[in-house]
Every structure is written in structure tokens, then in C-alpha cells.
Design brief:
mainly alpha
């Protein structure tokens, strides 16, 4: 994306701060969506497929937080 693009702040520090803010927002949205899906009975493979990652990756990233939040997680059959 060229620096002249009006959607990119002129100051690199502002542009990079925006990237950090967007990443944090994306992480919060992912956490909430994964929790919602797991509470609705989705399996790890279902969530992983929707996110475009492996079951192991989504489990590693979210399992401890979900357990701490009191979410009942499905076991592999």
C-alpha cells in the first residue's frame, strides 16, 4: 500500500500504532467469537476450520482461557 494512500497516516508512528490497535481488536474479537462458538457446542475442528488454522493451534491459543471462563469443552470422540 503506497504511503500516499489517504487511509494510511502520514506519520509512520501513527500508522504503526494503528496496526497495533487493529491487531489487539482482532484478538479480542477472536477470543469472543471462539468462546461464543464453544459455548454453542462447536468442536475444536469446527472452530479451527472457520479460522483457517489447525485444531491444535486453536486449542493451544484458547483452551486455558476458556476453561478459566467456565466453558465446558468438548472432548474428542
Amino acid at each position: 500500500m503506497p504511503a500516499e494512500d489517504p487511509s494510511v497516516p502520514e506519520d509512520p508512528a501513527d500508522a504503526l500504532a494503528a496496526v497495533v490497535a487493529l491487531r489487539r481488536l482482532a484478538d479480542r474479537l477472536e477470543d469472543a467469537a471462539v468462546e461464543q462458538a464453544m459455548r454453542a457446542g462447536w468442536s475444536w475442528p469446527d472452530v479451527a476450520e472457520s479460522l483457517g488454522v489447525t485444531r491444535q493451534a486453536v486449542h493451544k491459543k484458547h483452551a486455558k482461557r476458556l476453561i478459566a471462563a467456565g466453558v465446558t469443552l468438548r472432548r474428542r470422540q
